[in-house]
Write a structure and sequence with these properties.
By secondary structure, the chain is of the alpha/beta class. Helix content is 46%, strand content 12%. It is built from 13 helices and 7 strands. Helix 10 links the parallel strand 5 and strand 6.
Length: 391
């Protein structure tokens, strides 16, 4: 059975992987035939990703992710796929050109988005250093050092957690002293952990210091977010398929949009978004099947990924909550979705119509989609059989 994963983050934003080559090598070990890079606000990893996939005979999907804002829905208190922030809409671009071709104005928009994310990180670092000083710990973190040692251009919150962990471990080599320092910084005399458990401790740093409402937290400046239509336009300009990551957990409190699948599908179709994606590791297999089958029957492109944008390593094969594996029906839907994106890439590379046209309108009826999926399947099989195709 063919395994596919259309959504992983890499060190070019933040990832559980130390490198793209590690991610692709792990995918190969787990018999994944199609893998999609999906970093926030950047396509910088594409060249490295394409080379690694070529080496391991894995078909590469070139994707990107953005956060956007629907101002009217924010004012109404209406939630999309961000369960905390009303009006915020995450969108992925699937199957972009490689290299993507952005206009000068679009490049400026992406650059401005990047700068805003890094301005926020600078502010968080200032607050974190204040907290560390307040707790009488002789340690200070530096943005440029974090960027050079742990990031690929873009620094995110988990990079800060990683740097703080290793700074403590390196400066205080005795485990008992390390725990004392964590207790001081956390302001928790009863805190216990194994100092060698870097994944757990980085997660604790994030939860206790960098998360919403914690001492070093800085909220997003939503006034500076791009609109959902601006993000959609960016994706189309780069040759991609706008895709909506469906929020399906926590299971007892789905977002407003996701409570009613028919309403969500209608809203997405109004926005001319004809693809959805699931990161399903916290979703029950029953709920996942309900959502995936619904969108598949509505002729959406349905894809699945693992994200891998936290510190802890995990399987590269998408699965439901409690590591419940996909059944044959979900496997088929996942592979068909990957084939659609692969076919879109192949057709656009040949200057032919893809899954959607340049305006984002569907190019295929339900009857024509089977042939389009066949094109993607053929391209995937060529790569996995060892053919040297240029990406």
């Amino acid at each position: 059975m063919t395994n596919v994963n259309t959504h992983i983050h890499t060190p070019y934003c933040f990832s559980s992987f130390e490198s793209i080559s590690q991610a692709v090598s792990m995918a190969k070990q787990q018999n994944i035939s199609v893998l999609g890079i999906n970093d926030f606000n950047t396509t910088e990893g594409y060249t490295e990703f394409a080379a690694a996939c070529q080496q391991h005979h894995i078909y590469p999907l070139f994707n990107i992710e953005f956060a956007s804002l629907d101002q009217q829905d924010k004012e109404k208190g209406y939630y999309w796929n961000d369960p905390v922030n009303p009006g915020v809409v995450y969108l992925c671009g699937k199957g972009l050109n490689n290299p993507p071709e952005f206009s000068k104005d679009s490049k400026n928009l992406v650059s401005a988005m990047w700068k805003r994310t890094q301005d926020r990180i600078w502010k968080m670092l200032d607050l974190l250093n204040e907290q560390i000083k307040k707790r009488k710990v002789e340690l200070s973190l530096d943005y440029n050092q974090i960027r050079n040692q742990h990031a690929k251009n873009t620094v995110r919150e988990y990079h800060i957690a990683k740097k703080l962990y290793f700074s403590i471990i390196q400066k205080w080599p005795i485990p008992a002293h390390q725990i004392d320092i964590f207790r001081q910084i956390f302001d928790d005399p009863s805190f216990e952990a194994d100092p060698a458990d870097k994944i757990f401790l980085q997660d604790q740093i994030h939860k206790r210091l960098l998360d919403t409402g914690k001492p070093a937290w800085v909220g997003e400046n939503y006034k500076s977010f791009l609109s959902t239509q601006q993000v959609r336009t960016l994706i189309l300009e780069a040759g991609g398929i706008p895709s909506y990551p469906v929020y399906t957990y926590p299971l007892n409190d789905p977002s407003d949009c996701d409570k009613n699948l028919s309403v969500l599908a209608h809203k997405l179709q109004e926005l001319e978004i004809f693809a959805v994606e699931f990161i399903p590791n916290n979703t029950s297999i029953e709920l996942l099947k309900k959502y995936a089958l619904f969108f598949n029957r509505q002729n959406f492109c349905v894809t699945f990924g693992t994200g891998h944008n936290t510190s802890g390593p995990s399987t590269m094969i998408p699965s439901a909550q409690d590591n419940v594996p996909f059944d044959s029906e979900l496997h088929q839907i996942a592979y068909q979705g990957a084939c659609i994106i692969a076919a879109h890439q192949e057709m656009r590379r040949a200057n032919r119509p893809g899954f959607i046209n340049d305006e984002g309108k569907l190019n295929f009826s339900a009857n024509q989609l089977k042939e389009f999926i066949r094109i993607g399947d053929e391209a995937i099989r060529k790569i996995t059989s060892g053919a040297a195709l240029k990406f």
